[in-house]
Amino acid sequence: MRIQDAPIEASLWHATAAPAPDTFEVEGRETADVCIIGGGYTGLSSALHLAEQGVDVVLLEAKQIGNGGSGRNAGHCTPTFHFYEIPTIRKMLGDPYASRLIQRQTDAANLVFDIIHRFDIDCEGVQTGYVQSAHAPGLLPKMEQRCGYYQSLGKATRMLDREEVARLTGSPRYYGGWFHPEGGHLNPLGYSRGLARAAISLGARVFTQSAVTAIKAEGTRWRVETAKGSVTADKVICGTGAYTNGFWPGLEGSFSRLGVAVMATQPLGDNLRKIIAPNNNTVVDSRGDAMIYKYNKEGRLVTSAFVEGRRGGDMAYTKVLMAKKLQWLLPDVPEVDWHYYWLGVLDMQPKTIPRLFNLAPGIVASLGYSGRGVPTGTMMGTVLAEWALGAKPEDLALPLEPLRAAPFYMNFVPRLFLAWYRFNDQRLARAGGAAPPPF
Ligand SMILES: Cc1cc2nc3c(=O)[nH]c(=O)nc-3n(C[C@H](O)[C@H](O)[C@H](O)COP(=O)(O)OP(=O)(O)OC[C@H]3O[C@@H](n4cnc5c(N)ncnc54)[C@H](O)[C@@H]3O)c2cc1C
Predict the structure, then answer these.
(1) Atom 35 of ligand 1 has which residue's CA nearest to it?
(2) What distance in angstroms lies between residue 219's CA and the mean position of ligand 1's atoms?
(3) What would the pLDDT profile of 231-277 be if each residue is shown by its tens digit?
(4) Which residue from 329, 200, 177, 219 is spatially nearest to 301, judged by alpha carbons?
(5) Cys staple from 195: which of 44, 81, 238, 318, with CB 3.0 to 4.6 Å?
């Protein structure tokens, strides 16, 4: 089975999210100002922001709302850039796009929580802050620099010393870290369903079980076709992320896929919850092959790992490995019983920032988020709404690029990086006289 076909029904979120609004398959001919393909954060946030402006919108989702990454991710909402520092983004994109993207991305968690509050979305959403912890002392100067970059953007970030990071994470393995108060976490499927409900309440028409098979020109408009119906619209937004299939030639080749396994423990008792992440923060460590954890509403610890051969592919092996990893990090946890285990895929591309592709006059695609999609997908919905409302390309937050194939090396380099990261994680720890992470 391909990872993108793994069932969402196995996920903790599917078992616990607030129900989805009633939706049906599209049948017959529909017309709209804008047709959106994909019922994840990108498509749903675009629909919400367009419907809010009174635009007539139809959204088509192949399966159920949040079927892709948006319903099965780990639920961290972190308003930073994952791979690059702020000055690197400035160099990569140049102004005005760099300043615009930096502003949008670093404010994106506030956008997410503003939407959750405005539409009263039932999704376990808490903006309790993000802790990034250093697994080796030598990483602290770099973290201090990163913390400073976000401070210079007006964020109330701060450094954490060894005692405070131990208190906030519950782990004795870290040497310090930094804190970003705007980070948070949520039930990702609950958030997707809430976005759909909000968009529908504003007049958007949302259809599920409606896979788009082709987009064809119809006079000056576009006809978006499914097995049983079609939508004719002036503009089309493609928000199909890593779950894109062949409905537009070349779109699937614009990124590579990287699998992620996500798992959730038994609910931890109150005493343990007072020790481990007692402030209900999200915790991500400094390892290239990072350890990452947060609670759900029942007090289960949710963590994840990139799929790499047996890791992720072999569930029994992965459960044992991830239990050992978690217990090394959190020795207070007496036993780990993984009650939930599920898989998803990321859409990776070399720049690791969103790409806005101009597929044809009146058709754009936004994908390649390479992780960080909770804030980024929601934020890109605002950019796509501006595009659909007629903003000039030069006024958008990102350049509108011609569709490009991802370089061939993207098929294996992200996986090779994981092995290199693990070697480097150990090297950095040893160099600082720290106990190297054994995994
Ligand atoms: C396991 C995992 C863990 C992650 N953890 C995090 C995290 O903790 N924090 C974070 O910020 N990000 C995380 N991410 C990334 C994040 O989930 C994604 O970047 C984000 O959800 C992408 O949103 P999207 O709307 O662009 O695409 P998706 O959510 O993937 O939605 C695309 C939708 O398009 C639909 N579709 C595809 N083809 C068609 C078609 N032909 N017709 C109609 N519909 C179609 C799919 O069914 C799907 O529902 C994670 C991702 C995964 C997979």
Answers:
(1) 38
(2) 32
(3) 999 999 999 999 999 899 999 999 999 999 999 999 999 999 999 99
(4) 329
(5) 44
